[in-house]
Amino acid sequence: MDWSKTKTIFIVVFLILDIFLLILFVQKYNDSQLETIGDLSTTERLAGENVTLGELPDVEDSRPYLNAEYYRFMSSDLQELEGQTATIREGQILESVLTEPVAIEDPENPEELNELLEDYVTNGGQYTFWEYDEEDNQLIYFQTFEGLTLYYNLNAQIAVQLNGNNEAISYEQTYLTSLEEFTEEQQLREPRSVLETFYDRNLIQPNSTAVDLQLGYYPLFVQETGGDTDEGITQVLTPTWKMTIENEDGSRNDLFMNAVDGSIYDMSQVDLDFEQLEEEDEIAE
Fold first, then answer.
1. Three-class secondary structure of residue 119 per DSSP
2. 106 within some domain
3. One domain, residues 83 and 121
4. Distance CA 174, CA 98 (A)
């Protein structure tokens, strides 16, 4: 017997066996690590990725739904407007051209329009500045109710048009009227639950902080109450959370959630072009 060859064969066999056992060990270890990660609670994963709640303002724990009606502008509304020439489109859109343009120093913070809205726009004091739409060169205002913003509601906004010199030259307006609270209060999602839901949906990056939480309202559904005009159409609005997230690089983004049932709203898909209202009227006819 050639013991030299036999020894070599044994060495090779044991080496192959060792490699096989090592592969089994690594696979078992990786599987155990995956099981451990899967067993981690959302709270533990938040901590592991350094996602935190900052110092948020005090928020309500319950709030009712709202009911509102579409407002149809009338000729009497136009007669009360000064320093502008206004017309009404499709009953619910007021379009106005300012007699004198108003210079805006900073479109991101158009303080110059505060007085104009209060004194020269129908119910203008009920709107709050939301954003500067750089693409369309417009200042967007959302209607409010008892200090709460009506988020991304095409029937409750003002769009102020700027010219190339950053001057306000015209605006379009819609308005919700007869806003009333439902009798029953709705229990709202707590801040921690809101953060965890956004995180579970992969909407929050590691090393991020929730720096603000504000309550507002968003349309839940529209219902017809009779009649052939928009006077017979009402909206039901649900309490809605707007959570502001500050990312590791310092940038911020807002996330929106139905504060009652936890549904997440993608506001990037919401179209606030007033032409939609005209198209809806044409379809209805």
1. helix
2. yes
3. yes
4. 17
Radius of gyration of the chain (CA): 29
161 half-sphere exposure, CB direction, 13 A CA radius: 12
- The token duo for 276 is 């939609």
C-beta of residue 273 within 8 angstroms of C-beta of residue 207: no
CATH number at residue 166: 3.30.310.160
CA dist., res. 27 & res. 22, Å (int): 9
H-helix or E-strand containing 193?
A: helix 191-200
Q: Domain range holding 166? A: 70-177
127 contacts 120 by C-beta, under 8 angstroms: no
pLDDT at 185: 96
Q: Which residues contact 190 (CB under 8 A, 6 or more apart)?
A: 61
pLDDT digits (tens, 9 = 90+) for 135-192: 999 999 999 999 999 999 999 999 999 999 999 999 999 999 999 999 999 999 999 9
Instruction: Tell me, yes or no, whether 169 and 220 share the same domain.
Output: no
SS3 82: coil
pTM of the complete model: 0.82
Neighbouring C-beta atoms of residue 29, cutoff 10 Å: 10
Name the one residue in this structure whose structure tokens are 């308005």: 175
